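User: C-alpha coordinates for F-box domain-containing protein, please.
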Amino acid sequence: MKQLGAFHTPNAIYRLLENNEPPSDEERIEILSMLQDLEAQLERPSRNGYKAPSLQANNTYQSVLSVLSFVRCIPIEIWQRVFEFVVFEPTMKDCDPLRMLSRVSRRWEGAASTHQILWSILPPVSLLNTASPIVPSQHSALRSRLQLFLSRSGSNSIDFQCFYSSSEDVWKTNRTVLLDILSTFVEVSHRWREAVIHIPAEVVEEALAPLRADGRLPRLEKLQLELNVWALDREGLRQQSRVVKVDHFSNAPNLRHVTVNTSVISVPAFPIHILEDNNTVFNFHLPWPQIEIFKSRIATIGRDENSYRLIPENETDGGPRDRLREVVYHVRNGSLTIPNRTSPITLSSLVKLTLRMGNTYPGDIFIRHLSRLILPSLEELEVHEGNFIHRPVDDMSWPTLYEGVATLVRQSGCSDSLRRLRLDEKVGPRSADELQELLFLCPSLEHLDVRALQDHELQVLRRDANLPELLPNLKVLSLRWPAEYTYSESYILFLRGRKPALVQPSTLWEVVQSRISTSAQQQPRLQEVRLLGVSSSKDEYQVLNAQMNLLIGDSAWPFPAGSWAASDTLDYEGLSQLRTALQKKFKPFGGKYPTGAHVNLMLHWEMDGIMRRLEELDLEGCKGFILAVSPF
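Assistant: Done. Predicted C-alpha coordinates:
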Protein backbone atom coordinates (compact mmCIF):
# COMPACT_ATOMS: atom_id res chain seq x y z
CA MET A 1 0.00 0.00 0.00
CA LYS A 2 1.46 3.35 -1.04
CA GLN A 3 1.63 6.07 1.58
CA LEU A 4 0.33 9.55 0.90
CA GLY A 5 3.85 10.93 0.60
CA ALA A 6 4.63 8.51 -2.23
CA PHE A 7 2.44 10.41 -4.71
CA HIS A 8 3.96 13.03 -6.97
CA THR A 9 1.82 15.89 -5.51
CA PRO A 10 2.04 15.41 -1.71
CA ASN A 11 2.74 19.05 -0.91
CA ALA A 12 -0.59 20.21 -2.38
CA ILE A 13 -2.47 17.58 -0.39
CA TYR A 14 -0.69 18.45 2.84
CA ARG A 15 -1.33 22.14 2.31
CA LEU A 16 -5.04 21.60 1.73
CA LEU A 17 -5.35 19.27 4.72
CA GLU A 18 -3.94 21.97 6.98
CA ASN A 19 -6.63 24.50 6.08
CA ASN A 20 -10.13 24.80 4.66
CA GLU A 21 -9.13 26.23 1.28
CA PRO A 22 -10.88 24.76 -1.78
CA PRO A 23 -8.56 23.06 -4.33
CA SER A 24 -7.91 24.73 -7.66
CA ASP A 25 -9.18 23.12 -10.88
CA GLU A 26 -5.75 21.63 -11.62
CA GLU A 27 -5.42 20.31 -8.07
CA ARG A 28 -8.91 18.84 -8.25
CA ILE A 29 -7.99 16.85 -11.40
CA GLU A 30 -4.83 15.50 -9.76
CA ILE A 31 -6.68 14.62 -6.55
CA LEU A 32 -9.39 12.73 -8.47
CA SER A 33 -6.67 10.77 -10.25
CA MET A 34 -5.02 10.04 -6.92
CA LEU A 35 -8.32 8.78 -5.49
CA GLN A 36 -8.71 6.38 -8.42
CA ASP A 37 -5.24 4.96 -7.73
CA LEU A 38 -6.06 4.61 -4.03
CA GLU A 39 -9.36 2.87 -4.78
CA ALA A 40 -7.60 0.45 -7.11
CA GLN A 41 -5.03 -0.42 -4.46
CA LEU A 42 -7.70 -0.84 -1.79
CA GLU A 43 -9.62 -3.27 -4.00
CA ARG A 44 -6.54 -5.19 -5.25
CA PRO A 45 -6.37 -8.69 -3.66
CA SER A 46 -3.19 -9.83 -1.97
CA ARG A 47 -1.13 -12.81 -3.12
CA ASN A 48 -2.98 -15.10 -0.69
CA GLY A 49 -6.40 -13.83 -1.68
CA TYR A 50 -8.52 -10.88 -0.58
CA LYS A 51 -7.28 -8.93 2.40
CA ALA A 52 -9.30 -6.26 4.19
CA PRO A 53 -7.83 -2.75 3.83
CA SER A 54 -5.81 -1.59 6.81
CA LEU A 55 -7.03 1.19 9.06
CA GLN A 56 -4.16 3.38 7.86
CA ALA A 57 -5.13 2.84 4.23
CA ASN A 58 -8.75 3.77 4.93
CA ASN A 59 -7.67 6.88 6.83
CA THR A 60 -5.44 7.94 3.94
CA TYR A 61 -8.29 7.52 1.49
CA GLN A 62 -10.74 9.46 3.68
CA SER A 63 -8.21 12.28 4.18
CA VAL A 64 -7.71 12.73 0.45
CA LEU A 65 -11.46 12.50 -0.12
CA SER A 66 -12.11 15.23 2.46
CA VAL A 67 -10.10 17.69 0.36
CA LEU A 68 -12.90 17.55 -2.23
CA SER A 69 -15.65 18.17 0.34
CA PHE A 70 -18.27 20.63 -0.89
CA VAL A 71 -17.92 22.47 2.44
CA ARG A 72 -14.66 23.92 1.10
CA CYS A 73 -16.59 25.39 -1.83
CA ILE A 74 -19.02 27.37 0.31
CA PRO A 75 -18.71 31.07 -0.62
CA ILE A 76 -17.11 33.47 1.84
CA GLU A 77 -20.43 35.32 2.18
CA ILE A 78 -22.09 32.17 3.48
CA TRP A 79 -19.34 31.62 6.06
CA GLN A 80 -19.67 35.20 7.20
CA ARG A 81 -23.38 34.70 7.73
CA VAL A 82 -22.71 31.51 9.71
CA PHE A 83 -20.13 33.37 11.81
CA GLU A 84 -22.78 35.93 12.72
CA PHE A 85 -24.89 33.21 14.36
CA VAL A 86 -21.85 32.14 16.40
CA VAL A 87 -20.66 35.60 17.42
CA PHE A 88 -24.11 36.92 18.35
CA GLU A 89 -25.12 33.81 20.31
CA PRO A 90 -25.67 35.15 23.88
CA THR A 91 -23.81 32.24 25.48
CA MET A 92 -20.67 33.08 23.48
CA LYS A 93 -20.22 36.61 24.80
CA ASP A 94 -17.55 35.69 27.35
CA CYS A 95 -15.43 33.26 25.30
CA ASP A 96 -14.09 35.43 22.44
CA PRO A 97 -15.68 33.49 19.54
CA LEU A 98 -13.83 35.51 16.88
CA ARG A 99 -10.49 34.34 18.22
CA MET A 100 -11.66 30.72 17.98
CA LEU A 101 -13.03 31.11 14.45
CA SER A 102 -9.90 32.85 13.19
CA ARG A 103 -7.71 30.00 14.39
CA VAL A 104 -9.45 27.39 12.21
CA SER A 105 -7.86 28.44 8.92
CA ARG A 106 -6.49 31.40 7.02
CA ARG A 107 -9.60 31.38 4.87
CA TRP A 108 -11.87 31.68 7.89
CA GLU A 109 -9.63 34.35 9.37
CA GLY A 110 -9.87 36.36 6.15
CA ALA A 111 -13.64 35.92 5.99
CA ALA A 112 -14.04 37.09 9.58
CA SER A 113 -11.59 40.01 9.47
CA THR A 114 -13.37 41.67 6.53
CA HIS A 115 -16.91 41.31 7.89
CA GLN A 116 -17.38 44.44 10.00
CA ILE A 117 -20.54 43.43 11.85
CA LEU A 118 -18.68 40.52 13.51
CA TRP A 119 -16.39 42.95 15.31
CA SER A 120 -19.20 45.04 16.79
CA ILE A 121 -19.16 43.06 20.05
CA LEU A 122 -15.98 44.16 21.77
CA PRO A 123 -14.01 41.70 23.95
CA PRO A 124 -14.95 42.17 27.63
CA VAL A 125 -12.50 44.09 29.80
CA SER A 126 -12.72 42.01 32.97
CA LEU A 127 -10.67 43.30 35.90
CA LEU A 128 -12.85 42.08 38.74
CA ASN A 129 -11.22 41.38 42.10
CA THR A 130 -7.90 42.73 40.86
CA ALA A 131 -5.33 41.86 43.52
CA SER A 132 -2.26 43.68 42.17
CA PRO A 133 -1.31 46.65 39.99
CA ILE A 134 -1.99 46.31 36.26
CA VAL A 135 1.40 46.05 34.55
CA PRO A 136 2.14 48.07 31.37
CA SER A 137 2.15 44.98 29.14
CA GLN A 138 -1.35 44.02 30.30
CA HIS A 139 -2.56 47.59 29.81
CA SER A 140 -1.06 47.71 26.32
CA ALA A 141 -2.61 44.36 25.36
CA LEU A 142 -6.07 45.53 26.47
CA ARG A 143 -5.81 48.76 24.47
CA SER A 144 -4.50 47.01 21.35
CA ARG A 145 -7.28 44.43 21.42
CA LEU A 146 -9.94 47.12 21.80
CA GLN A 147 -8.46 49.23 19.00
CA LEU A 148 -8.40 46.19 16.70
CA PHE A 149 -12.13 45.59 17.21
CA LEU A 150 -12.97 49.28 16.92
CA SER A 151 -11.12 49.63 13.63
CA ARG A 152 -12.47 46.43 12.07
CA SER A 153 -16.07 47.16 13.10
CA GLY A 154 -16.13 50.30 10.95
CA SER A 155 -18.98 52.61 11.88
CA ASN A 156 -21.28 49.87 13.22
CA SER A 157 -22.94 50.15 16.60
CA ILE A 158 -20.93 48.41 19.32
CA ASP A 159 -21.63 46.40 22.48
CA PHE A 160 -19.03 46.35 25.24
CA GLN A 161 -18.44 45.26 28.83
CA CYS A 162 -16.02 46.85 31.29
CA PHE A 163 -15.61 45.48 34.82
CA TYR A 164 -13.29 46.63 37.59
CA SER A 165 -13.15 45.99 41.33
CA SER A 166 -10.33 45.76 43.85
CA SER A 167 -9.32 46.76 47.32
CA GLU A 168 -8.96 50.48 47.94
CA ASP A 169 -5.15 50.23 48.14
CA VAL A 170 -4.85 48.44 44.79
CA TRP A 171 -7.30 50.91 43.26
CA LYS A 172 -4.96 53.82 43.97
CA THR A 173 -2.33 52.31 41.65
CA ASN A 174 -4.80 51.21 38.95
CA ARG A 175 -6.90 54.35 38.76
CA THR A 176 -4.97 55.87 35.84
CA VAL A 177 -5.13 52.64 33.84
CA LEU A 178 -8.90 52.30 34.25
CA LEU A 179 -9.45 55.95 33.29
CA ASP A 180 -7.43 55.38 30.12
CA ILE A 181 -9.49 52.30 29.20
CA LEU A 182 -12.76 54.11 29.90
CA SER A 183 -11.63 57.05 27.75
CA THR A 184 -11.23 54.61 24.84
CA PHE A 185 -14.89 53.68 25.19
CA VAL A 186 -16.08 57.26 25.76
CA GLU A 187 -14.36 58.45 22.57
CA VAL A 188 -16.70 56.22 20.54
CA SER A 189 -19.81 56.74 22.69
CA HIS A 190 -21.74 57.78 19.56
CA ARG A 191 -21.54 54.11 18.51
CA TRP A 192 -22.70 52.53 21.81
CA ARG A 193 -25.68 50.21 21.47
CA GLU A 194 -25.37 48.09 24.62
CA ALA A 195 -23.07 49.16 27.46
CA VAL A 196 -22.17 47.19 30.60
CA ILE A 197 -20.08 49.28 33.02
CA HIS A 198 -19.06 48.10 36.51
CA ILE A 199 -16.64 50.63 38.03
CA PRO A 200 -15.85 52.38 41.35
CA ALA A 201 -18.30 55.18 42.13
CA GLU A 202 -15.58 57.74 42.80
CA VAL A 203 -14.40 57.71 39.19
CA VAL A 204 -17.78 57.95 37.47
CA GLU A 205 -17.76 61.75 37.18
CA GLU A 206 -14.21 62.03 35.88
CA ALA A 207 -14.63 59.20 33.37
CA LEU A 208 -18.16 59.76 32.08
CA ALA A 209 -18.55 63.56 32.21
CA PRO A 210 -18.32 63.98 28.38
CA LEU A 211 -21.47 61.86 27.98
CA ARG A 212 -23.65 64.72 29.26
CA ALA A 213 -23.27 66.59 25.98
CA ASP A 214 -26.11 66.32 23.49
CA GLY A 215 -25.60 63.80 20.72
CA ARG A 216 -23.03 61.66 22.56
CA LEU A 217 -25.34 58.63 22.98
CA PRO A 218 -27.62 58.57 19.91
CA ARG A 219 -27.69 54.75 19.54
CA LEU A 220 -27.61 53.58 23.16
CA GLU A 221 -30.49 51.16 23.75
CA LYS A 222 -29.43 49.11 26.77
CA LEU A 223 -27.41 50.17 29.81
CA GLN A 224 -26.17 48.14 32.76
CA LEU A 225 -24.37 50.36 35.25
CA GLU A 226 -22.99 49.14 38.57
CA LEU A 227 -21.13 51.46 40.91
CA ASN A 228 -19.15 49.98 43.77
CA VAL A 229 -17.93 51.62 46.97
CA TRP A 230 -15.75 50.39 49.80
CA ALA A 231 -17.27 49.58 53.18
CA LEU A 232 -16.91 52.10 56.00
CA ASP A 233 -16.34 51.58 59.70
CA ARG A 234 -18.73 52.94 62.32
CA GLU A 235 -16.98 56.29 62.44
CA GLY A 236 -17.27 56.67 58.68
CA LEU A 237 -20.96 55.74 58.72
CA ARG A 238 -21.67 58.45 61.31
CA GLN A 239 -20.27 61.16 59.04
CA GLN A 240 -22.35 63.02 56.49
CA SER A 241 -23.32 60.93 53.49
CA ARG A 242 -21.50 61.48 50.22
CA VAL A 243 -23.79 62.18 47.25
CA VAL A 244 -22.90 60.73 43.84
CA LYS A 245 -24.93 62.30 41.04
CA VAL A 246 -25.33 60.16 37.92
CA ASP A 247 -27.07 62.08 35.13
CA HIS A 248 -24.74 61.13 32.28
CA PHE A 249 -27.35 59.04 30.42
CA SER A 250 -30.36 61.34 30.62
CA ASN A 251 -29.77 62.54 27.03
CA ALA A 252 -29.80 59.10 25.40
CA PRO A 253 -32.85 59.31 23.08
CA ASN A 254 -33.11 55.57 22.34
CA LEU A 255 -32.41 54.20 25.81
CA ARG A 256 -35.06 51.59 26.63
CA HIS A 257 -33.53 49.01 28.98
CA VAL A 258 -31.76 50.20 32.15
CA THR A 259 -30.14 48.23 34.97
CA VAL A 260 -28.54 50.29 37.74
CA ASN A 261 -26.88 48.57 40.69
CA THR A 262 -24.74 49.60 43.61
CA SER A 263 -22.48 47.25 45.53
CA VAL A 264 -20.31 47.47 48.62
CA ILE A 265 -16.84 45.90 48.58
CA SER A 266 -16.37 44.37 52.02
CA VAL A 267 -13.27 45.33 54.00
CA PRO A 268 -11.58 43.11 56.63
CA ALA A 269 -11.20 44.81 60.02
CA PHE A 270 -9.08 43.88 63.04
CA PRO A 271 -9.36 41.53 64.86
CA ILE A 272 -12.02 39.34 63.21
CA HIS A 273 -14.65 41.45 61.57
CA ILE A 274 -15.90 42.34 58.10
CA LEU A 275 -17.13 45.83 57.22
CA GLU A 276 -20.05 45.65 54.78
CA ASP A 277 -21.89 49.01 54.82
CA ASN A 278 -21.49 52.38 53.14
CA ASN A 279 -23.77 55.42 53.45
CA THR A 280 -23.22 56.88 49.97
CA VAL A 281 -26.36 58.36 48.41
CA PHE A 282 -26.71 57.71 44.68
CA ASN A 283 -28.70 60.28 42.76
CA PHE A 284 -29.64 58.72 39.41
CA HIS A 285 -31.41 60.72 36.71
CA LEU A 286 -32.95 58.70 33.89
CA PRO A 287 -35.14 59.56 30.88
CA TRP A 288 -38.19 57.92 32.48
CA PRO A 289 -40.71 58.71 29.70
CA GLN A 290 -38.87 56.37 27.31
CA ILE A 291 -37.70 53.58 29.67
CA GLU A 292 -39.39 50.21 29.07
CA ILE A 293 -37.41 47.88 31.35
CA PHE A 294 -35.94 49.06 34.65
CA LYS A 295 -33.97 46.85 37.05
CA SER A 296 -32.00 47.80 40.12
CA ARG A 297 -30.14 46.23 43.02
CA ILE A 298 -29.13 48.68 45.73
CA ALA A 299 -26.75 47.57 48.48
CA THR A 300 -25.73 50.84 50.15
CA ILE A 301 -27.70 52.05 53.14
CA GLY A 302 -27.56 55.65 51.85
CA ARG A 303 -29.75 54.74 48.88
CA ASP A 304 -31.11 57.24 46.38
CA GLU A 305 -33.46 60.01 47.41
CA ASN A 306 -35.33 60.84 44.20
CA SER A 307 -35.06 58.90 40.95
CA TYR A 308 -35.27 55.53 42.65
CA ARG A 309 -38.74 56.19 43.95
CA LEU A 310 -41.01 53.72 42.30
CA ILE A 311 -43.84 56.19 42.80
CA PRO A 312 -43.07 59.87 42.01
CA GLU A 313 -44.31 62.72 44.18
CA ASN A 314 -46.49 64.10 41.38
CA GLU A 315 -47.28 63.69 37.70
CA THR A 316 -44.32 65.83 36.61
CA ASP A 317 -41.68 64.33 38.94
CA GLY A 318 -39.20 62.70 36.56
CA GLY A 319 -41.73 62.54 33.74
CA PRO A 320 -44.43 59.94 33.01
CA ARG A 321 -43.62 56.25 33.16
CA ASP A 322 -46.18 55.12 30.59
CA ARG A 323 -43.76 52.93 28.62
CA LEU A 324 -42.54 50.85 31.57
CA ARG A 325 -43.14 47.15 30.85
CA GLU A 326 -40.94 45.52 33.47
CA VAL A 327 -39.66 46.69 36.86
CA VAL A 328 -37.32 44.63 39.07
CA TYR A 329 -36.53 46.55 42.24
CA HIS A 330 -34.19 45.06 44.87
CA VAL A 331 -32.93 47.01 47.88
CA ARG A 332 -31.32 45.59 50.98
CA ASN A 333 -31.91 47.68 54.11
CA GLY A 334 -31.82 51.18 55.52
CA SER A 335 -34.39 53.95 55.14
CA LEU A 336 -36.13 55.23 52.05
CA THR A 337 -38.40 58.25 51.94
CA ILE A 338 -42.04 57.46 51.23
CA PRO A 339 -43.52 59.80 48.61
CA ASN A 340 -46.22 62.12 49.91
CA ARG A 341 -48.37 61.34 46.92
CA THR A 342 -51.92 60.41 47.91
CA SER A 343 -53.48 59.74 44.52
CA PRO A 344 -52.70 56.45 42.73
CA ILE A 345 -50.37 56.32 39.75
CA THR A 346 -51.26 54.27 36.67
CA LEU A 347 -48.58 52.32 34.84
CA SER A 348 -50.66 51.16 31.92
CA SER A 349 -47.99 49.11 30.12
CA LEU A 350 -46.38 47.36 33.10
CA VAL A 351 -46.56 43.56 32.73
CA LYS A 352 -43.96 42.47 35.32
CA LEU A 353 -43.30 43.89 38.78
CA THR A 354 -40.74 42.37 41.16
CA LEU A 355 -40.25 44.03 44.55
CA ARG A 356 -37.54 42.75 46.90
CA MET A 357 -37.45 45.49 49.49
CA GLY A 358 -35.41 44.06 52.36
CA ASN A 359 -35.81 46.13 55.53
CA THR A 360 -36.47 49.33 53.60
CA TYR A 361 -40.03 49.86 54.87
CA PRO A 362 -41.99 48.56 57.84
CA GLY A 363 -44.40 45.96 56.53
CA ASP A 364 -47.59 48.00 56.90
CA ILE A 365 -46.15 51.06 55.13
CA PHE A 366 -44.87 48.95 52.27
CA ILE A 367 -48.26 47.26 51.84
CA ARG A 368 -50.01 50.65 51.77
CA HIS A 369 -47.39 51.73 49.24
CA LEU A 370 -48.69 49.00 46.91
CA SER A 371 -52.20 50.41 47.10
CA ARG A 372 -51.05 53.52 45.21
CA LEU A 373 -50.36 51.53 42.07
CA ILE A 374 -52.82 50.81 39.25
CA LEU A 375 -51.43 48.20 36.86
CA PRO A 376 -54.13 47.15 34.37
CA SER A 377 -51.78 45.02 32.20
CA LEU A 378 -49.95 43.20 35.00
CA GLU A 379 -49.03 39.56 34.22
CA GLU A 380 -46.31 38.76 36.79
CA LEU A 381 -46.11 40.02 40.37
CA GLU A 382 -43.41 39.17 42.93
CA VAL A 383 -43.33 40.71 46.40
CA HIS A 384 -40.86 39.10 48.76
CA GLU A 385 -37.90 39.61 51.09
CA GLY A 386 -39.80 42.42 52.78
CA ASN A 387 -39.84 43.45 56.43
CA PHE A 388 -43.14 41.75 57.28
CA ILE A 389 -41.94 39.93 60.39
CA HIS A 390 -42.70 42.78 62.82
CA ARG A 391 -46.47 42.84 62.36
CA PRO A 392 -48.18 42.25 65.74
CA VAL A 393 -49.94 38.91 65.55
CA ASP A 394 -53.11 40.07 67.33
CA ASP A 395 -53.38 43.51 65.71
CA MET A 396 -56.07 43.00 63.05
CA SER A 397 -55.82 46.65 61.94
CA TRP A 398 -52.46 46.03 60.32
CA PRO A 399 -52.86 45.18 56.64
CA THR A 400 -51.42 41.84 55.60
CA LEU A 401 -49.45 41.26 52.44
CA TYR A 402 -52.32 39.19 51.05
CA GLU A 403 -54.76 42.03 51.69
CA GLY A 404 -52.44 44.53 50.01
CA VAL A 405 -52.03 42.38 46.91
CA ALA A 406 -55.78 41.77 46.74
CA THR A 407 -56.35 45.55 46.83
CA LEU A 408 -53.78 46.05 44.07
CA VAL A 409 -55.38 43.41 41.83
CA ARG A 410 -58.90 44.67 42.50
CA GLN A 411 -58.24 48.36 41.78
CA SER A 412 -55.98 47.59 38.79
CA GLY A 413 -58.52 45.35 37.10
CA CYS A 414 -55.74 42.90 36.17
CA SER A 415 -57.61 39.74 37.22
CA ASP A 416 -57.70 38.36 33.69
CA SER A 417 -54.08 39.18 32.85
CA LEU A 418 -52.24 38.09 36.02
CA ARG A 419 -50.46 34.79 35.28
CA ARG A 420 -47.76 34.49 37.95
CA LEU A 421 -47.82 35.45 41.63
CA ARG A 422 -45.01 35.06 44.15
CA LEU A 423 -45.43 36.30 47.72
CA ASP A 424 -42.98 36.49 50.61
CA GLU A 425 -42.03 33.11 52.09
CA LYS A 426 -41.92 34.45 55.65
CA VAL A 427 -45.61 35.33 55.93
CA GLY A 428 -48.82 33.57 55.06
CA PRO A 429 -52.46 34.63 54.93
CA ARG A 430 -54.24 35.58 58.12
CA SER A 431 -56.82 32.89 57.41
CA ALA A 432 -57.93 30.43 54.76
CA ASP A 433 -60.72 32.87 53.82
CA GLU A 434 -58.18 35.61 53.14
CA LEU A 435 -56.23 33.26 50.86
CA GLN A 436 -59.41 32.22 49.09
CA GLU A 437 -60.47 35.84 48.56
CA LEU A 438 -57.15 36.70 46.90
CA LEU A 439 -57.14 33.62 44.66
CA PHE A 440 -60.71 34.24 43.49
CA LEU A 441 -59.46 37.60 42.20
CA CYS A 442 -56.86 35.80 40.02
CA PRO A 443 -58.77 33.32 37.82
CA SER A 444 -56.07 33.31 35.11
CA LEU A 445 -53.22 32.50 37.49
CA GLU A 446 -50.91 29.74 36.17
CA HIS A 447 -48.04 29.86 38.68
CA LEU A 448 -48.63 30.34 42.42
CA ASP A 449 -45.51 30.67 44.62
CA VAL A 450 -46.17 31.22 48.34
CA ARG A 451 -45.05 30.25 51.82
CA ALA A 452 -45.78 26.62 52.62
CA LEU A 453 -49.48 26.64 53.46
CA GLN A 454 -50.94 25.23 56.63
CA ASP A 455 -53.04 22.14 56.12
CA HIS A 456 -56.38 23.98 56.32
CA GLU A 457 -55.07 26.64 53.91
CA LEU A 458 -53.93 24.02 51.43
CA GLN A 459 -57.45 22.58 51.37
CA VAL A 460 -58.58 25.78 49.63
CA LEU A 461 -56.78 24.64 46.48
CA ARG A 462 -58.62 21.33 46.33
CA ARG A 463 -60.90 21.22 43.31
CA ASP A 464 -64.52 20.44 44.15
CA ALA A 465 -67.20 19.98 41.50
CA ASN A 466 -69.82 21.36 43.90
CA LEU A 467 -67.98 24.65 44.48
CA PRO A 468 -66.92 27.50 42.19
CA GLU A 469 -63.63 26.59 40.56
CA LEU A 470 -60.60 28.26 42.10
CA LEU A 471 -57.52 28.85 39.90
CA PRO A 472 -58.76 26.73 36.97
CA ASN A 473 -55.57 27.36 34.96
CA LEU A 474 -53.04 26.60 37.71
CA LYS A 475 -50.02 24.76 36.25
CA VAL A 476 -47.23 25.25 38.81
CA LEU A 477 -47.58 25.31 42.59
CA SER A 478 -44.50 26.32 44.62
CA LEU A 479 -44.46 26.04 48.41
CA ARG A 480 -41.55 27.58 50.33
CA TRP A 481 -40.15 26.98 53.79
CA PRO A 482 -38.23 30.10 54.95
CA ALA A 483 -34.79 29.98 56.54
CA GLU A 484 -36.12 30.84 60.02
CA TYR A 485 -37.78 27.44 60.23
CA THR A 486 -34.41 25.70 59.91
CA TYR A 487 -32.96 27.40 63.00
CA SER A 488 -33.15 26.32 66.61
CA GLU A 489 -36.43 26.04 68.51
CA SER A 490 -35.48 28.99 70.72
CA TYR A 491 -35.21 31.20 67.65
CA ILE A 492 -38.55 29.98 66.33
CA LEU A 493 -40.17 31.00 69.63
CA PHE A 494 -38.78 34.49 69.05
CA LEU A 495 -40.86 34.80 65.89
CA ARG A 496 -43.87 36.17 67.80
CA GLY A 497 -46.13 33.21 67.62
CA ARG A 498 -45.55 32.23 64.01
CA LYS A 499 -45.50 28.49 63.51
CA PRO A 500 -43.72 26.53 60.81
CA ALA A 501 -46.05 25.23 58.15
CA LEU A 502 -46.80 21.53 58.47
CA VAL A 503 -48.19 19.93 55.37
CA GLN A 504 -50.00 16.62 55.49
CA PRO A 505 -48.73 14.59 52.51
CA SER A 506 -52.20 13.11 52.17
CA THR A 507 -53.72 16.59 51.87
CA LEU A 508 -51.20 17.65 49.26
CA TRP A 509 -51.82 14.43 47.36
CA GLU A 510 -55.58 15.05 47.41
CA VAL A 511 -55.07 18.57 46.05
CA VAL A 512 -52.83 17.26 43.29
CA GLN A 513 -55.19 14.43 42.36
CA SER A 514 -58.11 16.81 42.16
CA ARG A 515 -56.20 18.93 39.64
CA ILE A 516 -54.88 16.20 37.35
CA SER A 517 -56.80 15.74 34.12
CA THR A 518 -58.50 12.36 33.91
CA SER A 519 -58.23 12.22 30.13
CA ALA A 520 -55.03 10.61 28.87
CA GLN A 521 -55.31 12.68 25.69
CA GLN A 522 -55.06 15.98 27.53
CA GLN A 523 -52.14 17.63 29.26
CA PRO A 524 -52.83 17.78 33.01
CA ARG A 525 -53.84 21.19 34.25
CA LEU A 526 -51.44 21.02 37.20
CA GLN A 527 -48.01 20.17 35.83
CA GLU A 528 -45.52 20.77 38.64
CA VAL A 529 -45.40 20.98 42.42
CA ARG A 530 -42.21 22.52 43.78
CA LEU A 531 -41.21 22.24 47.43
CA LEU A 532 -38.54 24.82 48.22
CA GLY A 533 -36.51 25.31 51.36
CA VAL A 534 -33.59 27.53 52.33
CA SER A 535 -30.53 26.05 53.98
CA SER A 536 -29.11 27.88 56.99
CA SER A 537 -25.67 26.30 56.59
CA LYS A 538 -24.28 29.43 54.91
CA ASP A 539 -25.12 33.11 54.78
CA GLU A 540 -25.91 32.84 51.08
CA TYR A 541 -29.23 31.37 50.08
CA GLN A 542 -28.92 27.72 49.11
CA VAL A 543 -32.16 26.34 47.80
CA LEU A 544 -32.96 22.73 48.48
CA ASN A 545 -35.38 21.96 45.70
CA ALA A 546 -37.61 18.95 45.26
CA GLN A 547 -40.03 18.84 42.38
CA MET A 548 -42.94 16.60 41.56
CA ASN A 549 -43.76 16.51 37.87
CA LEU A 550 -47.23 15.33 37.03
CA LEU A 551 -46.98 13.36 33.81
CA ILE A 552 -49.44 11.17 31.93
CA GLY A 553 -49.91 7.44 32.42
CA ASP A 554 -48.19 5.17 34.90
CA SER A 555 -45.41 7.69 35.52
CA ALA A 556 -47.85 10.37 36.63
CA TRP A 557 -46.21 10.52 40.06
CA PRO A 558 -42.42 10.25 40.35
CA PHE A 559 -42.68 9.57 44.08
CA PRO A 560 -45.08 6.82 45.14
CA ALA A 561 -46.68 7.18 48.53
CA GLY A 562 -44.04 5.00 50.17
CA SER A 563 -41.21 7.35 49.22
CA TRP A 564 -42.51 10.24 51.33
CA ALA A 565 -40.83 11.16 54.58
CA ALA A 566 -41.57 8.74 57.38
CA SER A 567 -43.24 11.43 59.50
CA ASP A 568 -46.94 12.17 59.24
CA THR A 569 -46.27 15.77 58.24
CA LEU A 570 -44.06 17.22 55.52
CA ASP A 571 -41.94 19.90 57.20
CA TYR A 572 -38.45 21.11 56.39
CA GLU A 573 -36.87 17.87 57.60
CA GLY A 574 -39.29 15.91 55.46
CA LEU A 575 -38.40 18.10 52.50
CA SER A 576 -34.74 17.22 52.93
CA GLN A 577 -35.62 13.51 52.99
CA LEU A 578 -37.70 13.96 49.85
CA ARG A 579 -34.75 15.61 48.16
CA THR A 580 -32.58 12.61 49.07
CA ALA A 581 -35.18 10.32 47.52
CA LEU A 582 -35.09 12.43 44.38
CA GLN A 583 -31.31 12.10 44.15
CA LYS A 584 -31.54 8.33 44.42
CA LYS A 585 -34.18 8.13 41.73
CA PHE A 586 -32.41 10.35 39.20
CA LYS A 587 -28.70 10.69 38.49
CA PRO A 588 -28.04 14.44 38.31
CA PHE A 589 -25.82 15.89 35.61
CA GLY A 590 -22.18 16.05 36.64
CA GLY A 591 -22.54 13.62 39.53
CA LYS A 592 -22.94 16.23 42.29
CA TYR A 593 -26.43 17.60 42.86
CA PRO A 594 -26.06 21.32 42.04
CA THR A 595 -27.35 23.93 44.46
CA GLY A 596 -30.81 25.12 43.49
CA ALA A 597 -31.18 22.65 40.65
CA HIS A 598 -33.99 20.17 40.17
CA VAL A 599 -34.97 17.42 37.79
CA ASN A 600 -37.61 18.81 35.46
CA LEU A 601 -39.40 15.89 33.88
CA MET A 602 -42.09 18.21 32.59
CA LEU A 603 -39.52 20.08 30.54
CA HIS A 604 -38.31 16.80 29.05
CA TRP A 605 -41.89 15.85 28.27
CA GLU A 606 -42.53 19.17 26.53
CA MET A 607 -39.26 18.89 24.59
CA ASP A 608 -40.23 15.39 23.47
CA GLY A 609 -43.50 16.76 22.14
CA ILE A 610 -41.69 19.51 20.24
CA MET A 611 -39.26 17.05 18.67
CA ARG A 612 -42.12 14.75 17.64
CA ARG A 613 -43.83 17.67 15.90
CA LEU A 614 -40.57 18.50 14.12
CA GLU A 615 -40.30 14.90 12.92
CA GLU A 616 -43.76 15.19 11.41
CA LEU A 617 -43.01 18.54 9.77
CA ASP A 618 -43.74 18.44 6.03
CA LEU A 619 -41.26 20.65 4.18
CA GLU A 620 -42.71 19.95 0.74
CA GLY A 621 -43.73 23.17 -0.92
CA CYS A 622 -41.64 25.33 1.43
CA LYS A 623 -39.24 27.86 -0.04
CA GLY A 624 -35.56 26.98 0.16
CA PHE A 625 -32.18 28.19 -0.99
CA ILE A 626 -29.17 26.20 -2.21
CA LEU A 627 -26.08 27.26 -0.28
CA ALA A 628 -23.54 24.99 -1.95
CA VAL A 629 -23.43 22.04 -4.35
CA SER A 630 -21.23 18.99 -3.89
CA PRO A 631 -18.74 18.44 -6.73
CA PHE A 632 -19.68 14.74 -6.87
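User: Anything notable?

Assistant: The radius of gyration is 31 Å.
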